[in-house]
Amino acid sequence: MPNGKMRKGDLIAGVSVAGLMLPEAVAYAAIAGLPPQRAIFAGIAGCLAYATIGQSRFAIVAPTSSSAAILAAILASMAIAPDQKPALVTAVVLLTAVFFGLAALTKLGSLTGFIARPVLRGFSLGLAVTIIMKQLPAVMGVDVHAPDIFHLGAALISSAAQWNWVSIACGALALVALLLLKRFPAFPAAFFILAASIAASVFLGLPALGVGIVGPIDTSLVAPAFPVFSFDQWSRLGQLALPLAMILFAESWGTISALALRHNDEVNANRELGALGFANFASALVQGMPVGAGFSAGSASEAAGAATRWTSVVASVGLGLLIAVASPLVANMPQPVLAAVVIAALVHALNPAPFIRLLRLHRDFELAIAAAVAVLLLGVLNGMLVAVALSLAMVIHRLASPRVARLARLGDSREYVDAA
Question: Is 0.70 topped by the overall pTM?
Answer without folding.
Answer: yes
